[in-house]
Amino acid sequence: MTIESRSMAALDPADLDARDALAFHRERYIIPQGVIYLDGNSLGPASHAALTGLETAAKEEWAEGLIRSWNTAGWFDLSLATGNRIAPLIGAAAGQVVVCDTVTLNLYKVLHAALAMQAGRRVIVAEAGSFPTDLYIAEGVASTLPGVTIRLVGRDADTFEELIDEQTAVVLINHVDYRTGLLQDMARVTARAHKAGALVVWDLCHSAGALPIALDECKADFAVGCTYKYLNGGPGAQAFVYAAGRHHDKLKQPLSGWWGHARPFEFETSYAPSPGMRMFLTGTQGILSLRALAGALDNWKDVDLQALRHKSLQLTQYFMDLVAEQCAGFGLECITPRQDKLRGSQVSLRFEHAYPAMQALIARGVIGDFRAPDIMRFGFTPLYIGFADVSRAVAILKDILQTEAWKDPAFSTRASVT
Ligand SMILES: Cc1ncc(COP(=O)(O)O)c(C=O)c1O
Description:
The strands form three sheets. Strands 2-8-7-6-5-3-4 form a seven-stranded mixed sheet, sandwiched between helices. Strands 9-10-13-12 form a four-stranded antiparallel sheet, with helices on one face. The chain has a two-stranded parallel ribbon with strand order 1-11. By secondary structure, the chain is of the alpha/beta class. It has two domains: 3-47 and 304-412, Aspartate Aminotransferase, domain 1 (Alpha-Beta Complex), CATH 3.90.1150.10; 50-298, Aspartate Aminotransferase, domain 2 (3-Layer(aba) Sandwich), CATH 3.40.640.10. The model has no long low-confidence stretch (mean pLDDT 97). α2 crosses α9 and α4 (78-86) runs parallel beside α9. It starts with 12 loop residues before the first helix and ends in a 15-residue tail after the last helix. 33% of the residues lie in helices and 13% in strands. α8 (186-195) links the parallel β5 (168-174) and β6 (199-203). Pyridoxal-5'-phosphate (PLP) binds at residues 102-104, 131, 133-134, 174, 178, 203, 205-206, 226, 239. Pyridoxal-5'-phosphate is lined by residues 102-104, 131, 133-134, 174, 178, 203, 205-206, 226, 239.
């Protein structure tokens, strides 16, 4: 029997925790006393390893090593070395991933590069419900290239299948939807795009570190993703870019900065791209951030991604089942798919008073987030969340709904970041 076929609500959380083979990971993370942290899908927590990486970089490599550390501490190659450590987590062979800049900037690079490879094709296919930066960047890229237009699933047609055709240059798609948690079928969408001659860019922000990913196996062309969410690299940690090795010779990325030059320290007048993934670099990278991320990645050396996925599905289902049982009648609507194969590692509840209700939860130590206009979003990160956390979070949610604690005016003042 699969876990999706019967309710988990009656199960004892202590029992589930006792049988949890991933429980030993929790002590590696710093979760403040009294907090149930259900927002690791937005900002992963600090870990002892990340703080050690940061401290070593600051106190030894910077303070003592000074400029020598570009060579002696491996700073110059850190983007590539860190990319190679992320590669196995996203199903990529070495030499195809680099860590640099932000997801937003990297989207610009790969979208532009993909369009340049597709002479005669001028259409970008994306999702109307995409994370907005993806759409803004698609608009920006289109504005610099004559004749490029954008078609959106959810606005111009209902499905990718209907929109992808022989005019499609590139499909830009979110692996897991940031609002609903819907998981796309990477193999199917990639194959469909390729059949029409289109390339695919995957946004892995909500799947990297949350589930096993098979970029090479699915023959994906490009991908970008966050390292500050499920990979716990720290606020603003650099993003990763993947470009399939088979494309490297034809690639040209538009932000031609000196770090992507074939010979940056020759200080030549004209740009000559570096071969391989180094070409995706632009300028000097934040080394302290990279070192925090490199430390955080030490915690992934012994993570079994299949076991991670299994526990993630259990956690999300347990939460959905408990909410269905204990919070019925308060006007909550779960908008996350119940089917395992369609769900990432988050659960989103639609509620008319989502903002104040989330603030009331945070005040009680249950940290999730709010996505406009009416979504309470909860991330379930198997390395440091247990079943007792889930059970307690739902009990607190029920209490807040029952007592209408969210009506306290203090919870209605919108902060800049929600
Ligand atoms: C799905 C998705 N894409 C892109 C981004 C943008 O990332 P960044 O701000 O690091 O450029 C985010 C950030 O949360 C995201 O969730």
